[in-house]
Amino acid sequence: MIIHILYGSETGSTEQLAEQAVEHLQQLGHEVTLDPLDDAKVSDLPQLSGILLIITSTWGDGDPPSNAAELHYQLSKNETSLTGVRYAVFGIGMASFGHFCQAGKDFDHFLAAAGAERLLPITLSDDNGAADLPLWLNKLQPILTRQK
Ligand SMILES: Cc1cc2nc3c(=O)[nH]c(=O)nc-3n(C[C@H](O)[C@H](O)[C@H](O)COP(=O)(O)O)c2cc1C
User: Fold this and answer.
1) Who lines ligand 1 at CB under 6 A?
2) CB 58 within 8 A of CB 103
3) Reported pTM
4) Ligand 1: residue whose CA is nearest its atom 7
5) Which of 23, 93, 94, 129 has its CA 20 to 30 A from that of 59?
């Protein structure tokens, strides 16, 4: 089973987190791909075999980072059924901002609204990916091993 990680990152720190997730999952024997969110089209998502993991920051005033903005916009239109897509979202942001982790929350919501299966409730990290990402991956691990 392939794990597809799509990330959204403005300055690269969330991209680094996503790279850590790749290493972690590869060490557990999973096959993993890593791309910016905007490298995916909505129409690609139903074709994905395996699991989709989204790791994204929030920027501006509750906005997606620039390498996630196009997919965010396309998904917001909710024009494509994503039934059969299995996913989990890790959102990172800062609780001092008014729209804490809004981009992660949006992706989580858009995917569920389009019929995708949420494998785990969204995890929100208050700019503490170093501690929160491994906890999220540990929670995911039994779910990933159960999936075919
Ligand atoms: C200008 C700016 C705007 C931000 N806006 C938000 C926001 O609206 N909501 C939030 O939860 N975090 C916000 N953040 C926090 C970032 O999501 C957080 O610092 C994250 O680690 C940035 O990761 P990145 O550089 O990989 O995008 C903002 C940070 C900056 C510098």
Assistant:
1) 9-14, 57-62, 65, 92-94, 97, 99-102, 127
2) yes
3) 0.98
4) 62
5) 23
Which of 101, 128, 141, 140 lies closest to 8 in space, CA to CA?
101
Atom 22 of ligand 1: nearest residue by CA position: 57
- From residue 77, how far is each of 13, 61, 107, 111 by CA, in Å? 28, 20, 12, 11
| Ligand 1 atom closest to residue 65's alpha carbon, by position in its atom list | 27
pLDDT in tens, the chain (148 residues): 899 999 999 999 999 999 999 999 999 999 999 999 999 999 999 998 899 999 999 999 999 999 999 999 999 999 999 999 999 999 999 999 999 999 999 999 999 999 999 999 999 999 999 999 999 999 999 999 888 6
Mutation test of ligand 1: which of 7, 97, 105, 106 has the most ligand atoms closer than 8 Å to its C-beta?
Answer: 97
* CATH fold label, 2-146: Rossmann fold (3.40.50)
